[in-house]
Amino acid sequence: MNNKNYYNIESLPVMLTVTDLSRLLRVSRNTAYNIISEGKIPHTMVGRQIRIYRDDALTFCGKM
What we know:
Helix 1 (18-25) crosses helix 2 (29-37). With 64 residues, this protein is of the alpha+beta class. It has a three-stranded antiparallel β-sheet. The chain has helices spanning 18-25, 29-37, 54-63, and strands at 15-16, 44-46, 49-53. The model has no long low-confidence stretch (mean pLDDT 88). It has one domain (9-63): Molybdopterin biosynthesis moea protein, domain 2 (Alpha-Beta Complex). It starts with 14 loop residues before the first strand and ends with a helix.
């Protein structure tokens, strides 16, 4: 999301960063990392960076 405002789901990028996820969930980055490390949301590594598919993040949001 990187200082961008997304007004609808379709405007979200396909792959989210941890910062994007924390903004989407309205939690701190540490909480987003905890959610990922506990396996509550699937993720993939791109090099050393964590990426989350938009659909997985939205599915998780529906479970909250």
